[in-house]
Amino acid sequence: MNLDRLTELRKKKNWSLQDTADRLGIAKSTYAGYESGYRRPSFEALITLAELFGTSCDDLLGRHFEKDIELTDLKKKELSVDYRKLTETETSGVIAFIRAMREIEEKK
Amino acid sequence: MNLDRLTELRKKKNWSLQDTADRLGIAKSTYAGYESGYRRPSFEALITLAELFGTSCDDLLGRHFEKDIELTDLKKKELSVDYRKLTETETSGVIAFIRAMREIEEKK
DNA sequence: ATGAGTTATTCGCTAATTGCGTACTTAGAC
DNA sequence: GTCTAAGTACGCAATTAGCGAATAACTCAT
After folding, report:
1. Whole-model pTM?
2. Are residues B13 and B30 in the same domain?
3. CA B36, CA B45: separation in Å to the nearest integer?
4. Which of A22, B22, B57, B82 is 20 to 30 A (C-alpha) from B41?
5. % of chain B exceeding 70 in pLDDT
């Protein structure tokens, strides 16, 4: 059970092992151990890594977890189209749109 | 850094410490250590726990991670409205709907 | 090509942590 | 009261993390 994506994510950021270790506040050799699979990060380090690389712990752990997203439960703006976030108005519009579509469909 | 939600999730399932430990294939006292914060699970155990409890590792780790969802990138149906999954047609409809809304908005 | 400087990999050692069994405590059923 | 199951706490053995130092690989300029 290795953290296979670490190297990839780190290189994408153009960071050296030392850079990354510094950001984590650990020794270079320690972080190197994570990438090689020789060592495992503490939970704190894992969480910090996820933050640094802008991803989830599940992702780092190689777990492709996907929760179903219920639009009526969304409190925050999390959806985007063409890489532009939806406003609250747009999100409400989408919900209404879907309900309308379904209503039409049922009457067929 | 404790796994505070474990007890809550276990009780929601009406499992004893022993039940849960059995499912994980570890000793009761070991699992008890996770809940009390005295011990920490291995990554394998963490992942299995997330599976057993139907949640994410991020959730168990107390991390409220939310990725921005780009609708045009969605390969699978992950969205739902009124707890009913959107079909592919509906998802395409939503994207077209948003683009149309924005076009109208820009022309104002 | 040589050498300086940076980056990556490996290793021994120590300190810390895990996982287990066991024992103790509590709670409820009979 | 006694029995069983649940939860808690602890000592011990074994594993593991983290560190620095040593070594190897890579990248430049000269």
Report:
1. 0.81
2. yes
3. 16
4. A22
5. 96
